[in-house]
Structures are given as structure tokens and as C-alpha cells.
Hints:
- The chain is about 55% helix and about 10% strand.
- By secondary structure, it is of the alpha/beta class.
- The protein has a four-stranded parallel beta sheet.
Amino acid sequence: MPCVVDASVVLAVLLPDETQPAEAFVADLIGGGARAPAHCATEVCNGLVVAYRRGRITRDEMGSALSDVAALRIASDARDRFGVSADVVNLALAHRLTVYDAAYLELARRSGLPLATFDGALRAAAVSEGVPLLETTS
């Protein structure tokens, strides 16, 4: 099912010790059914670096995960540009989200696609905004 996916879901797919039930999203990610703001790639790479620094993955596993990211066909939002829209900032302020997380919410709201996230605050904001959520529990 097409959806907007955030870094928490992508990292849950990539990290071998992740306990979140992300298997359901693999087909959408590989099949090209997922979209994300452009900064998602940077967030995912940062998450892999942090996982490496914390000893959750080895350098080889990090390299493998970076290769796996390329296989995930996540479409970057074509509207992204340098700068942040007022809509994103307003969502961040209204729901006490980071601007990064508000960008996922804004994309889901604008595109009419459901949001896939493991982030509790982002899920609550989506419900408040009437944005449908993909079920993220097993």
C-alpha cells in the first residue's frame, strides 16, 4: 500500500536487532510504494552511524545496511526544496514535533497517503490532524 514512511520504520527494517515489527513494510519499501521527505535519507544514515557508535552494528553491517537502503525504492517528495514550508513549521508548533517529524506529517496530509511511523508523538499528531496511520503492531 502506498504510504509516507519515516526514518523509524526504515531503520527498523535495516537494523538486525530492532524489535519493532517492520516486516509488513518491506514489500512497500521495495515495491516503490513509499514516499518520504528528502531529509529521510539523512535521518536514516544518521541512525545507522549512531547504531554503529553504540555497538549495535559493526562497520560491515553498517555498510551492508547502506547498500540495502539503495534497494528500498522510497520516492523523495518532489516538492522538497531548500527551506521549510510554513505548513511544516505550523504543524511542528501545533503538535510539539521536531520540524523533521512535522515534514512527514505534512507530506502525508498533503498527499492523502497514510503515515507509517513508530514514533508515538508523530502518531498522535497524525490522529489529531485526521491523517490515516498504517498499523505498526504485529
